[in-house]
Amino acid sequence: MSDNAKNKRSGRHEERVQAFFLLFEQLFQKDDMELIIEDAKDARDAKVGEYTRTLIRGVEENREEIDKLIEANLKGWKLRRVSRVSLTIMRVAVYEMLYVDKLPVSVSINEAVEIAKEYATPADGAFVNGVLGSVAKQIGKSGDE
After folding, report:
1. Of the candidates 21, 15, 23, which has an alpha carbon nearest to the alpha carbon of residue 61?
2. Burial level of 98, CB count in 10 A (0-12/13-18/19+)?
3. Can you tell me whether residue 145 is helix, strand or coil?
4. Contact 23, 91 (CB under 8 A)
5. Residues of the chain with pLDDT under 70
6. CB atoms < 10 A from the CB of 74, how many?
7. CB-side exposure of 46: number of CA atoms within 13 Å?
8. How far is CA 76 from CA 12, 125, 135, in A?
9. Structure confidence at residue 10 (pLDDT)
10. Which of 49, 94, 104, 114 ranks highest by number of CB atoms within 10 Å?
11. Would you call 44 exposed, middle or buried from its count of C-beta atoms within 10 A (0-12, 13-18, 19+)?
12. SS3 of residue 73 by DSSP
């Protein structure tokens, strides 16, 4: 992998992490996202790029559809039982799977699993992987699309 490709991957990873942080914060603050973004920039010097904003807007605008897909693939669980961390991570990934063209589904799933392992637990990583794999099958996309 070239240095440019690595930097792009790393940059996208960081933008996904920022989207996760900001969407997670909104679950508790119920403030307008622009206010949450400004507070994050002030409090922790958050870097909010265009892809982060795309993910946030996409999840907000499509949350109902995204949540229905996630819940349909929980295998006996209800959405309200899923940890907020795992749910937020999966929302970002499902948005990518549905709406970001030219991004392999496997990238969205792998990134979500890595974020879950970093900010939740290894068990959450496995859970996220299983649910997102089922979502990919339901929407008719393999891991390489």
Report:
1. 23
2. middle
3. coil
4. yes
5. 1-9, 142-145
6. 16
7. 24
8. 33, 18, 15
9. 73
10. 94
11. exposed
12. coil
pLDDT per residue as tens digits for the range 14-30: 999 999 999 999 999 87
d(CA 104, CA 67): 21
Q: Please, is 32 exposed, middle or buried when counting C-beta atoms within 10 Å of its C-beta (0-12, 13-18, 19+)? A: exposed
**What 3 state SS string does 92-126 have?**
HHHHHHHHCCCCCHHHHHHHHHHHHHHHCCHHHHH
State the Cα–Cα distance between residues 83 and 145, nearest whole angstrom: 28
Q: According to the model, what pLDDT value does residue 9 have?
A: 53
Q: What angle do CA 110, 113, 119 make, to 5 degrees?
A: 140
The pair of structure tokens assigned to 115 is 């974020």
For residue 26, count other CB atoms closer than 10 A to its CB. Answer: 19
Residue pair 36/29 in contact by the 8 Å Cβ criterion: yes
